[in-house]
Amino acid sequence: MDFYARPSVSSIIDRTGITPQLPDAGGFVLRSIFVNYRRNDSEGEAGRLFDELAKVFGENAVFMDVAGIEPGQDFRKAIDQSVAGCSVLLGVIGPHWLDSQDDSGRRRLDDAGDFVRIELASALRSRTPVMPVLVRDARMPRAAELPDDLKDLAYRNAVELTHARWKSDIQLLIKAIRPYMDPPAESVETSNVADHPPAEKQASPVSGRKVETESAPVSFDGAEIERVTRELARHLGPIANVMVKRIAQRSTSMTELCAALSREIASDSDRAAFLRACRG
Questions:
Q1: How far apart, in whole angstroms, are the C-alpha atoms of residue 32 and residue 9?
Q2: Residues 6+ apart with CB under 8 A from 179
Q3: Across the chain, what does the average pLDDT equal?
């Protein structure tokens, strides 16, 4: 049985009731989209999709590859952290996605070390919402055609992106993604308060009365920000780039920034290692 049918907007969304959200020290929720794809199957469509999503949600909110995996680091753990930190994963499926083979003639999906499989399995395991995106007349795979850790993918409603209807199909997909990317009204109000703290009051040189003035934002050294981002990415993956930029806006010193960022690292040993690297 072919599980794919062109769905309505409401049916595209994987309604698990859980939207993974990664709060920063200022109470914000950092939302992002992870685009999973296979290069020899849908690289062109994935790149085009990235551009469309970046226009709407911003480049820092869309990831196509796991970056910042250092030599010696367990790439499975790095992928788990990166995927778990995203709000939704888009699995781009082209006509050769299911039967793509490696140099030895083995189906790539049957390889437990295949990055596409690891990313999808991680999202399904962590209950991160997964939306299959079909391109070039691809069909949804059946459960029997998938390895055990991907079988749940067969039961996710998909959205189709076609060349002829690209603009309208993209709008349909964006509409389905928005519930995962837009903060609730209460969060928006809270973030507005955090973005615009009460202005400091200083004495007027004329009347001596207090007048409201806004304090200037702290300017961090670009090289230091890049170094801290790189160190944080070792523990959190590509979401580190977004997190550092957001928290830096509300930090008054590099020490305060590093302390706030460290609280987002779950492991005590990894947190300590990050703080040591910050001081270095």
A1: 20
A2: 13, 19
A3: 78
